[in-house]
## 1
Amino acid sequence: MLEKQREELRDDVAYLKSQSMRKNFVFTNIQEDNFSGNVTAEITETKLRKHLQETLKIAKDVADTLRFERVHRSPGQPVPGKIRNIVAKFTYFKDRKMVRRQWKHLSGTGCQMYEQFPPEVLEKRRKLVPKMKDAKKQGKRSWIVYDTLYVDGKPVKQ
């Protein structure tokens, strides 16, 4: 009984972590000219807005009006030859949703963007990806939401 309660508490904590990351997006492969590791958040935000305009084809006036609570590079010191990701916390969920819809413009650019999840949820999602691909090969519609796999609109037990 205690083991079950412990697992439920872990799931609750992971859910709460994911809710705090709900408005976050991670952007990869946006050039970094930071060899010292102390570039300001404003400069990082400017680079992100430029990326949104040039790569995601969002109009300049729209990109300039997007509101962020925080924009920063992934923690740690810069490593030569490696580009740290940018984590952006949108103030408004609808802005994040609008940016997310532009994902098709990223193909062939070497850049990616994805939702941020806590490590516990990422691990569950990694295990679900092969099952999702198998379902797609069988001609079924499948997708992952949070930590649940859906096949033809029905959740699949792990």
Note: Residues 22-116 form a domain with the Alpha-Beta Plaits fold (CATH 3.30.70.1820).
## 2
Amino acid sequence: MPMAASHAASAVPPVDEALMRETIRTLSSDEYEGRGPGTAAEPKTLDAIIARFKAAGLQPGNKGQDGKPTWLQDVPTATITATNRSPLTITGGAQSATVTSMTFKPSTEFVAGSYRITPHTEVKDSELVFVGYGINAPELGWNDYAGIDMHGKTAVILVNDPDYAMEGENGLFRGRRMTYYGRWTYKFEEAARQGATGALIIHDTFPAAYGWQVVESSWSGAQHFVQTANDGADQTGANGWIQKPVAEAILKAAGKDLAALTAAAQAKGFKPVPLGLKASLSFDNTIEKANSHNVVGLLPGKTRPDEYVLYSAHWDHLGRCKPDATGDDICNGAVDNATGVAALAALAKMNAAAGGTARSQVFLAVTLEESGLLGSEYYAQNPVFPLAKTVGGVNMDALAVGGPAKDITVTGGDKSELTTILRKVEGEMGLSESPEEHPERGHYYRSDHFSFAKRGVPMFDVARGTDLVVGGKAAGQAASDDYTNVRYHQPSDQYQESWDISGMVQDVKLFYRLGRELADSSVWPNWHPNDEFRAIRDKSLAEAKGK
């Protein structure tokens, strides 16, 4: 890959710290009530972001139905709440014994929901098939669905990747570092692509990286989705999780052993195993439809305006939430993610002041990140600017309070040719690179950049490290622990005038240079060979060149 155009540190415009403070202070004030999408606070939030984009010199990035420029993109959503949940009933028999019926309780032993917008969900006498890790990765020569027609059947799936237990990252699926194939979202998506009626993931705490209580609480309430033209008809009828002891009991009834099948599924060439059992479950769905908005700003390119570099940050937070000991029930979201929007505003002003780049730059403030990345997902499904012409981008989520650091961390590790630009810029800024903590937890797949990445667009997800210039790793870790344990998703995530934001300024300078290098270059970064997103990027680039 050719080296990107150089952009010396001396050419970086100053970061408007006053603008950043004012943006964080405003968006995280009680007046904005935690920036809940669809609440009375949404119009205020949108107006505040648009005002800052206008002041920076951006243009409206979208067009309305009347063809006139607009700052907003509608994001239609559906919320589905399952009620009247039946038990999970297993019937059938193994060669060695006959099983009349086994039933498992909702919530405590299994959970299930539907991606389909329908008032009632029923899976009746669906044949169970153990499909290992439920992965179809042609670039790796791996297909857990080889040789079986899944129509009418329910897939029983292991969580994570086949080589998750490795200490390093040298496995076919990057060992301890989770790939997208290990994420539960992928497993449900692939089961749907295979035509399955249902999909049940076997919960196991270590490879899942969280206990059953997380699964139970996450799936017991309302589920949020982007509305689609077919109301999710192309998805499985029901998706869910089962406790590991439940899976062991089901497989035993089929004359199988979970441990033995798990070991077999970790080797290339594994074939799906029909279990000779049938599953039934049902529940009703209460459906609510709503509309929120993304904000889209544009700084047109000077020589290649039909090529785009993206800066993104989510504007939403939790709104009103569980009260703390003082009775405060507003989750203000100062760090998460008023800081990201403040960085977006500062970057817009810096880039406009420096003059347009060769490529166009898009500044995207997305909604409903806290509800499952829905704003970015909707944009990626319905891009204002074609994803095949989107070169790459930088996502910003929850910039840490405190001073500058000596290091940065890269979520997801070295996945794409964006690393060439990153290593160049971090070297010029005198920064080192520290390993990501807990790569097995798959954090790369849990923020808005992922909505673009899974459709082939390489995205930076870079954060300031914890080795601070003042105080070192001890101070950095203490600050990180304080935020995670005391403020994250709590009413205490509030702006304070005493904040040291010099570290955020360092972040913005880094983000500016990464985006600017990409926007002034002629490179088209791709994912590394055998990365899970390489094939879709190759396809989109080939289609773009063919037009």
Note: The two ends are 23 Å apart (CA to CA).
## 3
Amino acid sequence: MTTDQAGTATVEAREWLGAAATPGRRWLLSAAGCQALETAFTIVQWTGLALVAGDVLAGDRPSWLGLGVLFGGGLLAAGATWSTARFQAVGRQRIAHALRRRLVAGLLPAGQRDGEPDPATAALATVELTDDIADFHAQSTPQRLSAPVSMALILSVTAMLQWPAAVILLLASLLIPLNLRLAGLFAKEGADAQAAAGARLAAVVLDSFRGLQTLRNISALERRRSELARAAADLNATTIAVIRRASLSGAVMDVVITFSIAANATYIGLSLLGYVRMGAAPGMTLFRGLLALLVCPMYFQPLRAMAASFHSRERALSAVPAISGFLAEPSSNAERVSPAGEPVTVVLDNVSLRFPTADEPTLRGLNLTGQAGSWTAVAGPSGAGKTTLLSLIAGVRAPSHGTVQWLTPTGASAPWLGGCAWIGQQTVLLPGSIGDNIRIGRPDAGRADLERAVAAAGLAEVVARLPLRLDTPLGEGGWGLSTGEARRIAIARAFLSEAGLWVLDEPTAHLDADTEAQLIVALRNATRGRTVIVATHSTALARSADLLFGLSDGTIHTVREETRV
């Protein structure tokens, strides 16, 4: 990469990083305002402390005014601090959530890619690098916006108390930008090395887990253990280097700050003793001197925070190339139709799909219409492309040629993720109660909604015999469910989502005949008025469909069509 290309990439990374803050910007602006208020209230608090200290040193009892100002300012400052942390946390959460939503959409196989994403890099981007970006914005944005206001306020107060002390602060602050620049240069090199070492370790760990049986069979465990140790040692070394650079830049700043505070303390002390007199400066009193000394360290606090944010900024910039390549662009819902509660007609018009690495299309020239409120089944041998076809209908993939549309009375749109209910061969049960697992279909569902979903899925008898009914825990240490019962959990989730389109991928696979028959009845009951597209090998499930297609050699043909009343 040439110097010009590197410069362009850096500018683009900075622009992308700035745009990533948009989902949480409103909250971070509120945090900046609270941070400035915290500075103002802290000055009030120190004013009260100076009044109380002056009274005590003079041998008098502290005045009620001084105590009131001290405790009132402290409470207000604590409230502003709490509000700052709260707004920062919400802003950080919004940014991370928005990035992860785009990552999930980008990592799914929708659209055309030159190749599949590297699993280790994708996992690192989703789990760690997203947090690096959100942490940077949550830390730096409020500080960057509030620092000028806070520093100007402190400098103004110091100038009103003793303008020579303000001059000392101003002269010392002129040395800070050079230190911040050095901190940024140190941080960038270290952050790049740390990101590369982290990605390598993640790749080695993931490959080790995926190929553990093979490594054991070829007696390569010891060699892989050594490789893991080297990767971990590289990450440890780069992390220590980052800490060392941060400590060095922090030490330089500490010297400047310490010198400034010491100079001010010396000036104030000599002025109080009468050794130094500046005719144009206000008369030095104990109150003025104490308050100037108390607010002096506050002047440098925003600068210290900004120096620390240089390290998080370079970590975030290092994360941008790794994460931005996976992201899907934010999409607008303005042109989407919502199938929830509405009949949906699915139309495939001359649809073909060819994977980037394949020589021939997997699917070609498909024309299919799934009428609203009907069952459409697709049968065919394994590897014929049934699951791929369902992924096109559900919006997981985009066709290479042709169009897939969802038609409802309110309009038409291309399929979009989350717009339909999907039930596959495997039902994932998460730690929690049965109710929690069903509520995944609609997190805000109430108890009555859950009970309707349970009844629709044919789970009522199963739930009735459980010790805690819907609150019965599942998983390790909890209740176990059979494969058929787990599928009914999936049906209840889909019913709760109120989707008008259900896409089913071998929903009765690996079930005995009796359980399959019961599940078909449950599916029929739960999908009344819904459109169902199902891929299956099951003769019984194919017979229950209103329209049956056969899929072979990438093409589709009608096998049977009948009208059900």
Note: The radius of gyration is 33 Å.
## 4
Amino acid sequence: MSRSDAAWLAALAGEHLDLVQAPFTLPRSRILVFREGDGVRVHTSEYERALDDCRVLDALVVRNASGDALAITRVLPHAIEFGDGAVTLGFAGPGALTVGLGNAPGPSSPGSASVEWTTPDGEAQRAELGADAPAIRFDVSADRSVVTAASATHAVDVADGEALWLEWFAKCPVVRDDLQAMTAFCWWVLGANVVELPALGRARAVVPSKIGYVGLWQWDAYFIAVGLRHGDPVLAREQLELALRFPSPDGQLPDVVHELGVLATSDDLPPGDRENLRRAGSTIADPSAPVPLTKPPLAAWALAKVLDAEPADAWAREQLAVIRRSQDWWFAASDLDHDGLPEYGHPYSSGLDDSPIFDGPLPTTAPDLGAYLVRQDLELARFAERFGDADAAAHRTRAERTLVRLLELWDDERGIFRARAAGTDVASDTVVGLMPLLTGRLPEAVVDRLVAALADQRRFGTPWTVPTVAVGDPDFSDERMWRGPVWVNTNALVVEGLRASGHPALARDLAERTVALVVHGGGPHEYFNPFTGEKARTATTAFGWSAALFIDLAVGLSASPGE
């Protein structure tokens, strides 16, 4: 891709950089810049710390020679322009910001300007910009302290930031015209969410969001890798490698890999998470013994997709050894009632923390987990046949055995796959009951009932579909996380399930409706209201897996039929 093409895609992405839902940042940087009044405010991005606790500058305002605030007139991935470019704010490497005159001082330049800023402790400071000091640099330390100094390299620093972003956008997938602008923004999201984890050898993690989700969650990594593969398969493999790098001795994979270690049991939960669980009335906040925390087994599915983009056989064999042990762990250590169908021992291990299927006692037998385990064993069987390094028949036999147990959750009278709370049936009708489509092994009559449920306005047939809880369910809420809003990742899995279950036209239709939702909603938010298609009030913006899966769906929809 040419530099001009990359610049065009960067400009398309810039149209979404409102500094409210999408902050100004740089790949690998922990600095975030948001709009604030006449200027901006600055935060750092830290694991398990809210933005309000990570304040660097409460306000930074640029003024002209007359003392009037210069408005923000344009935002590009590499620069914020004030006063039509009279002054620009950019990065001077990942740890510093630079603010300077947009042109070298001369007859056509603004000549002078000033920068005012306020620190979190209320201290106000000011710097003049002119011929002798055309720019000021703000170096942000790990403790959020700031050191300022005059800078003579502002133009070079901004140009370096532009070059970095142009290199990133040169990898952006080219898709259908009606999806290209949002694809560019989603590609920006993935680049913006790159952070370094110094404790892991400066590893690059594409985090779910620099706003509140600064770590590598296991299944987020899988979804993000699926999108990244279309432009940066090396970085996609790096996400899988990080997610699979820290198995326990018995094969369990951790829920989160972060800069301070891993989150693999309830003993590792941050205090804020424990308090949230207590407020929800959950007894799991303070278990009598550590509860393993992991995420659904989608690793082999993601690995297969990443390898489709770029083969890496030797590397894949290393990852498969870890995935096989993880799959065995589910059956050996998470079949808590010893009936042959593993359970979730903690809501966090499902990824759908707030789903009503977890309102009852634990452990929870859930149809989505059964479906993922069947699909993963089938993927592992295909890998075993491809590489000749494992027993494919053993994986297929276990998949069939798990499918038998999964089908026992089918309630033919209601037309749903039921969950069970500590052995007792759960009445809730949720999106997890659609996940058995992923197996591609359901009886035709069951598939037909699930397909009908997707169109049923009393269940999942909302204007913007698929809600995570059926609209007719007493637990449905159009705004509350996993209790009704639409999530891009569950939609993408249903698309996969429809395709695997012999309904490619319906799969394509749902893919079209999902990308239309993201475009309509204004970006790849964490979750969406199923009636309005807008961002749900409490949803995070610029969300990693929503961006990645939008790209994956857009690429698929842009391919010629049959590709």
Note: The chain has two domains: 3-167, 171-558.
